[in-house]
Structures are given as C-alpha cells and as structure tokens.
Amino acid sequence: xxxxxxxxxxxxxxxxxxxxxxxxxxxxxxxxxxxxxxxxxxxxxxxxxxxxxxxxxxxxxxxxxxxxxxxxxxxxxxxxxxxxxxxxxxxxxxxxxxxxxxxxxxxxxxxxxxxxxxxxxxxxxxxxxxxxxxxxxxxxxx
Length: 142
Hints:
Strand order of the largest sheet: 1-3-4-5-2
Low-confidence stretches: none
CATH class: Alpha Beta
Number of strands: 5
Distance between the termini: 17 Å
CATH topology: Thiol Ester Dehydrase, Chain A
Number of domains: 1
Strand content: 25-35%
Helix content: 25-40%
Order of helices and strands: EHHEEEEHH
Mean pLDDT: 93
Number of helices: 4
Largest sheet: 5 strands, antiparallel
CATH architecture: Roll
Structural class: alpha+beta
C-alpha cells in the first residue's frame, strides 16, 4: 500500500503548561496526514466533497509512545489499512522529524456517506474515486 508522508512543526499553542503537546492534537495531525494523503494520490479532499462524498469518522484510536514538544518537526506517515465499499481505515505513524523516534500510532475509520449523511457504496456512487483508491492502495479491480 502506498504511504503518504507529511511534515509539520509543533506550534506553541499545541503544547500544555508542561511544554508537551496536548494529546488531542495528535488527532488533528492525523487529519492533516489524511488530507495530504488524498492530495498525494491526486484526489484532494475538496474534490471528494465536490463529488458529494463525505468521510465522517466512525472510530478513532491513538497510542502515545513518546512526547512531542514545541518546535519539534513531526513526520506523519499515513496509509490505508483497509478499503471496503462502504468504509475506509487509515493507519498513522507519527515520528520526530526524519528519525525513527516513534511518537504515536493511530487509526481512524471513516464511512462513505452522501451529503445527507446516508451511507453509500463508493464503487457505485463514484467509480472514478473507487478506482483511484484501489490504485493508491495497491488493490486490484474486481
């Protein structure tokens, strides 16, 4: 499966009184990684929404390994762990810069829904996006 990589820098506002990144910010960084992943496969999320597909989070998980601090560079590695016709699961690894210093592991699950919030079968709703996701994840067309 194709990995997406994104670099961000920890802002002062993302830290707590102890100078450590506040735990909820890791979920924001996962969103950044996911958004960039879509951009890197040639399907910016804005285009996904223009095609009347939304991806609400149905599950989210983060396992913290080491703290991040103000001004650290964070490397977010994002990949698709599972792609089904009605849902997608992303996995994330967050590292300190270009090192192997693992800060956190995460996972988010998303449903494919229409603009009214009703579940859709992506393969039927938007065959182009379905094909693009299969190509990006290394899956084969059925």
